Amino acid sequence: MNMDATGAASTAPTEGIRRLPITIALIIGAFVSILNETLLNVAFTDLMKELSVGPSTIQWLSTVYMLVIGILVPITALLIQWFTTRQMFLSAMILFLIGTVICGIAPSFGVLLIGRVIQAVGTGLLLPVMMNTILTIYPPEKRGAAMGTIGLVIMFGPAIGPTLSGLILDALNWRWLFFLIMPLAAFSILFAAIYLRNVSELTRPKVDLISILLSTVGFGGIVYGFSHAGEGGGWSDPTVYVCLVAGFVSLALFVWRQLVVKEPTLDVRVFKYPMFALAAALLMVMMMTLFSTLILLPMYLQGALVLAPFAAGLALLPGGVINGLMSPVAGRLFDKFGPRALVVPGLVIVIVTIWFMRGLTTTTPVGTVIAMHISLLIGISLVMMPGQTTGLNQLPRRLYPHGTAIMNTLQQVSGAVGTALFISIYSAGQKNYLSTVSNPTDPAQVPHAIVSGIHNAFTISMFVGVLALLLGLFLRRTHAPVEYHPAEPQPNPQPQQ
């Protein structure tokens, strides 16, 4: 379908499209942008000294990244229908490169923060475009392998980020964390300009400014509220509950408006498809478990086992790398056996591993922690990609932009919720332990207090994993429904066994 005289709709032809160059272009861009998310964390100590700011201020370099993506991703469902694949991807990577240059030459914290915001805008535009393109160019029976390859990059980038950052900082200053990214970003833009093709459908729906405002306040308020609570603001901080109340009220109004307007910005009717709704809930629960581990294990390694930050990063590297390598394997197994054959065993591995993590002590060998981390991430890799692909497979093509935007947004929100929840549980466990000892200020008690907090957090995390297992038992293989004209009502397809 080509653009008609009114500009109402346009579909880029996908027959004869060379999938491999397009996939490579997407992978390069995803790797560069996602690697950047964890690359900076190890440099926070150096940044605080050079820029003369405190921990609460420097944390904004991470918080603002999550906040911008949480605000922007819902709007991408609209943008994808207004701009072509090439326009969206190249704009995202150019913005990311501009932000990286600003960060690299930043003379002050304020300029560095502006650069991070621009980087986050690029990443927020890129991720939904990447998933939407994969859904468009690959048939359902081949999407598992394609999504698995994307998953390898998504997991491998954050895994090597802290270790790579530590190596760079040992030899160079923090600015090189950005300088070394610039050539990769530039190469991604050049490669995509040559090989990326337009595959998206342009319908140019009406821009609803009220929906955009409600979405921004809703998702932004929720992500910021939970992030602020988890970063030290605490649940009693008025900023936290004001942001959360404003966020949930705005989100409720946003959902109501999407149901009553003729052309919704983000079509929440995707939740009428049962496997999509189930997969979205499953992924939210799993993201909470994943984020709890990513936050708690480094604290345990550095605080209870007294490892240096670089050594802690190295200890977590094998699990992250193996998790990345498992993604394409899980993708191929998904194409062959369906989701439940992977998701249920994966969740059992997660639950059993977290049960063992509840037994961590101040004398647990580092090798044991590494083995537990590897086991946990293998289990998560068997759940995340198959669950996400199953949910998106059930949607008709016209809902792909909305489905991918919702999946990405819910993952950002659940990550913020998980971080705040488990940091709160961890901190409460520490305080409870210190209240029972004769000298709470004794430095020798700190490792034991950390272990006590870890026990409490992983106990709750294990119950969250059981909830995920109950959801996973209902997951079924799905196929996209027969397409209808947009004006006609869509069927509510039943999952196939």
From TrEMBL:
Location(s), subcellular: Cell membrane
UniProt membrane topology term: Multi-pass membrane protein
Annotated Gene Ontology cellular component terms: plasma membrane
Any Pfam family: MFS_1
Entry keyword set: Cell membrane, Membrane, Transmembrane, Transmembrane helix, Transport
Record-level Gene Ontology MF annotations: transmembrane transporter activity
Listed transmembrane segments: 20-40, 60-80, 92-114, 120-138, 145-168, 174-195, 207-226, 238-256, 276-297, 303-325, 337-357, 363-384, 405-429, 449-475
Record's protein name: Multidrug efflux MFS transporter
Organism of provenance: Paenibacillus faecis
